Amino acid sequence: xxxxxxxxxxxxxxxxxxxxxxxxxxxxxxxxxxxxxxxxxxxxxxxxxxxxxxxxxxxxxxxxxxxxxxxxxxxxxxxxxxxxxxxxxxxxxxxxxxxxxxxxxxxxxxxxxxxxxxxxxxxxxxxxxxxxxxxxxxxxxxxxxxxxxxxxxx
Length: 154
Fold this sequence. Notes:
five-stranded antiparallel beta sheet; HIT family, subunit A; 154 residues; single chain; alpha+beta
């Protein structure tokens, strides 16, 4: 297969690239629907990953611009894990997720795309959610638009 038809991705390709830290900028804009912010807490917030590993990929981040886990306050740590619990419940309810990959990529060498602002990934999984596309074409198909997903989750 030579081509993968995904016309919705053109808006990301052509979009003006954000300068600065998205985990600092997006919550300050107070445009939660446009920025796909799912939930806000006192210390942390959750946001859809616009370049997801799987449908429903959500990130949880403190508002404070910190890079290391050991810099989290007890309040940030506690609220972050409350968000993890609530987010997995939401994804089970709304998307019928059967499992999750949950974790941090701390530092660029660990795979963090944004390594200066700590964030946790929650990637929902389903039985048999792998198929021939990643194996044969090194491509992953995301089957739902971010707008539709945001509407379902909020």
